[in-house]
């Protein structure tokens, strides 16, 4: 049976029960005062229970039949009115099942349970539509980025085939560089996928130690580009994957070094502790950035400057990976342009329970 039919039968059943109870109350509380006289059979001469029951029973049966019909018809109508919003939600669900995510219910009327359900469904459709659109853009961009090294490799191979006498050393070096870039891009895509699934074990991690480790590993790159790298701050303990959080820190520092001034730039990595969160902030000098451009930097394959092709340029997934890792650890990434040029990237993560050793906060030494 449909829900509407079940509600109709329920309404009619409750109405019948109410009618029976009402007639029973009339019999118990009123007819008990009528004398039971078998000698006088005429109701108009001497009322008695037998004659009243004889005349009362058909009238009561007629009333119950009327109540049953009224309950069925009225219940069917009322159930239809009450379930009309659910019908609209069901139609919207079928439409979404066939791939149309732009449809919205927009249920009018007062804010009741059906209205809350419809609004929640509209919100879900909006987020799902945005997610699907983002995935389509990501797939298109990833295809484009992967196609570029493959096309370059094919061109180099065709050149080598057309001119067998040409020196192969330069071609091999270029093929190696192109292949290395394709491998980096593939590994970044895999890391982005793993971080988004949250399939990792959580451990206690100190962001200040990760900042030191990232700065130490990237110090040669900073010296090569003439960038001063500094780390400072407090012990910032959180819980999560040490490998992913190290990747997050490394990406932030690497991005700050690469997208910096040609010479004499600076990068500062700072950790701090709030009431319930820990913060890792990375600032760098650089060219002035507009808020509109900064808002797009976390999208995959977006770069703040020109699309550099050096061996330190990255694959355009650095900040996208940072945002995904932060979100997987129930944190946030906030990017803000600095007044004199450059960028401030702030990652805020939930704080871990303070250990019982009672160690005070300590500053981080510069590498």
Structure in words:
The protein has helices at 3-29, 49-97, 113-162, 168-197, 207-224, 242-258, 291-294, 318-328; strands at residues 203-206, 227-233, 237-240, 265-273, 277-284, 332-337, 343-350. It starts with a helix and ends in a 17-residue tail after the last strand. It has a five-stranded mixed sheet with strand order 2-4-5-7-6. It is elongated, with a radius of gyration of 38 Å. By secondary structure, it is α+β, with helices and mostly antiparallel strands. The model is unreliable at 305-312 and 354-367 (pLDDT under 50). A hairpin with a 3-residue loop joins strand 4 and strand 5 (277-284). 56% of the residues lie in helices and 13% in strands.
Structural topology:
Layout: H1 3-29, H2 49-97, H3 113-162, H4 168-197, E1 203-206, H5 207-224, E2 227-233, E3 237-240, H6 242-258, E4 265-273, E5 277-284, H7 291-294, H8 318-328, E6 332-337, E7 343-350
Main sheet makeup: 5 strands, mixed
Structural class category? alpha+beta
The share of residues in extended strands comes to 5-15%
Mean of all residue-level pLDDT scores: 78
Q: Kindly report the spatial arrangement of strands forming the biggest sheet.
A: 2-4-5-7-6
Shape: elongated
Quote the distance from N terminus to C terminus. 74 Å
Secondary structure tally, helices: 8
Task: Return the string of H and E elements.
Answer: HHHHEHEEHEEHHEE
């Amino acid at each position: 049976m449909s829900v509407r039919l079940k509600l109709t039968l329920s309404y009619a059943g409750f109405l019948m029960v109410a009618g029976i109870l009402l007639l029973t109350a009339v019999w118990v509380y009123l007819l008990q005062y009528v004398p039971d006289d078998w000698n006088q059979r005429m109701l108009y001469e001497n009322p008695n229970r037998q004659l009243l029951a004889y005349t009362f029973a058909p009238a009561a049966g007629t009333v119950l039949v009327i109540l049953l019909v009224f309950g069925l018809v009225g219940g069917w109508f009322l159930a239809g009115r009450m379930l009309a919003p659910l019908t609209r939600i069901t139609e919207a669900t079928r439409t979404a099942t066939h791939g149309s995510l732009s449809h919205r219910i927009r249920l009018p009327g007062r804010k009741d349970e059906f209205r809350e359900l419809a609004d929640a469904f509209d919100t879900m459709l909006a987020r799902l539509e945005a997610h699907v659109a983002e995935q389509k853009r990501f797939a298109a961009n990833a295809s484009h980025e992967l196609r570029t090294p493959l096309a370059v490799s094919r061109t180099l191979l065709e050149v080598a085939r057309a001119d067998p006498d040409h020196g192969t050393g330069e071609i091999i070096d270029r093929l190696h560089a192109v292949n290395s870039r394709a491998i980096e891009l593939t590994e970044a895509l895999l890391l982005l996928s793993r971080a988004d699934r949250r399939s990792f074990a959580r451990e206690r991690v100190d962001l200040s130690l990760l900042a030191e480790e990232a700065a130490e590993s990237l110090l040669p790159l900073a010296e090569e580009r003439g960038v001063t790298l500094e780390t400072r701050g407090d012990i910032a303990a959180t819980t999560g994957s040490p490998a992913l959080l190290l990747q997050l820190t490394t990406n932030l520092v690497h991005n700050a070094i690469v997208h910096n001034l040609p010479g004499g730039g600076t990068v500062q990595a700072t950790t701090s502790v709030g009431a319930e969160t820990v913060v890792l902030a990375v600032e760098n000098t650089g060219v002035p950035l507009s808020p509109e451009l900064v808002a797009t930097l976390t999208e995959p394959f977006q770069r703040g400057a020109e699309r550099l092709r050096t061996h330190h340029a990255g694959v355009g997934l650095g900040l996208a990976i940072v945002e995904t890792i932060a979100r997987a650890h129930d944190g946030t990434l906030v990017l803000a342009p600095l007044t004199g040029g450059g960028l401030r990237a702030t990652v805020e993560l939930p704080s871990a329970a303070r250990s019982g050793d009672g160690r005070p906060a300590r500053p981080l030494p510069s590498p």
